[in-house]
Description:
Layout: H1 8-20, E1 24-29, E2 36-39, E3 45-47, E4 51-52, H2 59-88, H3 91-114, H4 125-128
Antiparallel strand pairs: 1-2, 2-3, 3-4
Amino acid sequence: MSGGGYDREQALKRMTQLMMQGAVMLGETCPLDGLPLFRLKSGEVVCPVHGRVLIVSSDEEAREAEIEGIIREVRYRAARNVLESLEEGDPKRIREWLEVLESTERILSMRRSYAAPAGRGEPAERGRDKSGKGS
Ligand SMILES: [Zn+2]
């Protein structure tokens, strides 16, 4: 494809921005330019170039995206609760929240393995959480 009404570099910059804002890259692509779409925390689906797009090819996919967003939210809150319980010195609560956290991780990795879109859609999760917590 040649031309297209967009600047690749700009698009990349915008995609990076979106991810830094916590947007989730979807397996869906923009019908106009083939770029991956992003789901914002607000639930809106946007193209890095065209902004808001009303796509989502099926209800099912929309729901899948929503489920994933919810699991991520639970994971995030569980992590925060672990920290809070740590400050309160409540080992039982810490363990409980860690279990929740673990479950969400498991669900997300399961979903990733079977929801891998054929071809170009590479899950971009890895770069996203460099919270410096590990190893
Ligand atoms: Zn687009």
